[in-house]
Amino acid sequence: MTRMNKEDTTKYMANIARMMLADGRIDPIEEVIFDEVARDIGAGYFEKKEGRDLASAEDFDLPLVTRLSDRIRNLEDMLFMAYCNDELDPGERDLVIDFAKRLEISQAQLEEVRLQTKQRYTLFKKDRA
């Protein structure tokens, strides 16, 4: 598996952090998922910290990583973060739609990603029970 460079890893984590901040509160499960996503993509302490700092900026605009496959994965992980408190908040929904538009994926493709991510979250919850 090809690893992202540090710049892309930071962008990726910034998008996840922005999703975490979208509903105005950070739940403990969101911290768990943030760390899990970071581990999955090989993000270290500095990429996580810088990602959080970027996401907190008022003028933050969801950046795209270089590779298309990583962009789609970023969308999946953003949705995974959004589902972690069992609802898609309007702010989270807007971020997902904005990001999907920037990826230029169709509504059908977005729906497929959404359904697969929902299943992933259901399994995640079951494993944590």
Write down the overall mean pLDDT: 93
- Shape, principal axes of CA atoms: globular
Number of strands: 0
Number of domains: 1
Tally of DSSP helical segments: 6
Report low-confidence residues grouped into runs of 5 or more: none
Largest sheet: none
Helix-strand pattern, N to C? HHHHHH
Structural class: mainly alpha
The level of helicity is: over 70%
Cα radius of gyration in angstroms? 13 Å
**How far from one another are the termini?**
31 Å
> Which band does the percent of strand residues land in?
under 5%
Describe the structure.
With 129 residues, the protein is mainly α. The protein has one domain. The chain has helices at residues 6-21, 28-41, 45-56, 68-83, 90-103, 107-128. Helix 4 crosses helix 6 (107-128).
Short description:
The chain has 129 residues and is mainly alpha-helical. The protein has six helices and no strands.
From the structure above, extract its key features.
mainly alpha; 129 residues
Secondary-structure map with pairings?
Layout: H1 6-21, H2 28-41, H3 45-56, H4 68-83, H5 90-103, H6 107-128
